[in-house]
Amino acid sequence: MSDLKEHSCEACSADAPKATGEEKQQLHKDVPDWEILEIDGEEQLHKVFKLKNFIKALEFTNKIGELAEAEDHHPVIVLEYGKVTVSWWSHNIGGLHKNDFILAARTDAAFNDMQ
Fold this sequence. Notes:
The protein is α+β, with helices and mostly antiparallel strands. It has a single domain (19-113), classed as Gyrase A, domain 2 (2-Layer Sandwich). The chain is 37% helix and 22% strand. It has three helices and four strands, in the order H-E-E-H-E-E-H. Strands 1-2-4-3 form a four-stranded antiparallel sheet. A hairpin with a 2-residue loop joins strand 3 and strand 4 (83-88).
């Protein structure tokens, strides 16, 4: 397994290719707890994180926000008491790109740092 969180994100324009089936299969090995879901015709990486309380969930949400801003790539984040749901995908290409898997790995690392 590679250390995907250490990979660099690349600029992703509207004409960038989506990850191929083989690429998704390979990259998914590094973030196996993330589901690949199709929502409104677009594949997304989706994961629910359980935390101790609302304050911890808010802290984690803010960490994800910092990751997103650093890469100018923004997920859907749903904050609830003791739970944060995150979905990564590349809006401008309507599906998954390697960047989404990298940021999923960084999200996992941020969560693990809080434990």
